[in-house]
Amino acid sequence: MAIDAATERGILVSNAPGENATSVAELAFGQLIALSRMIPMFDRGTKQGKWPSGDAYELDGKTIGIIGFGSIGQKVARYAGAFNMRVIAYGNYQDHDAAARLKASFVDLNQLLREADYVVISTALSASNYHLIDQQALARMKQTAFLVNISRGALIDEPVLIDALRRKQIAGGRLMCLKRTAGIIARAG
């Protein structure tokens, strides 16, 4: 065990849940804005001497679906309130007091995927949610929806997501996953 090996060497290992919640939630919103406003694509095109164009979207009044409503998901919900977004959430951990305070409502996964303009994944990986976002899940999403994963990469079937983006099945995706050296950012179109 890695913890045993660290302990033998005098290295303290601890779990600090929620310590990075603010940073990760802010990163998620940065990615939502970057995708909605096509910032990476416009920047890349401009640097190549082009004047790219495309549809940019506002967050105001849209629906955000948060998969995982722990400390990070709750921070994302709080930030969504500043953008006048409707907040729906899905997950095993359902803090109804926090949801009421943040004006969020719990729904099942199918409803979240159908209704959300933005889906943010902020849940732990387990055997039961491996490839939670697969071909069937992506098919339930709006064609105009954006997906941002700030959790483990294995929650999404990445080849299926890349194919969905190529076919313009959803509007865009950003994977900022733990245990990944480089994220994937893509905007259909």
- The first-to-last residue Cα distance is 46 Å
Helix fraction? 25-40%
- Rg to the nearest angstrom? 17 Å
Structural class designation: alpha/beta
Number-wise, the strands total 7
DSSP helix count? 8
The oligomerization state is: single chain
Give, in spatial order, the strands making up the sheet with the most strands. Answer: 3-2-1-4-5-6-7
Report the portion of residues in β strands: 15-25%
Largest β-sheet summary = 7 strands, mixed
Spans where pLDDT lies below 50 across 5 or more residues: 177-184
Overall shape: it is globular
Reading the helices and strands in chain order gives: HHHEHEHEHEHEHEE
Overall pLDDT level: 88
Structure description:
The protein is an alpha/beta fold and 189 residues long. Helix content is 38%, strand content 15%. Helix 4 links the parallel strand 1 and strand 2 (86-90). Helix 2 (21-36) packs across helix 4. Mean pLDDT is 88; it is low at 177-184.
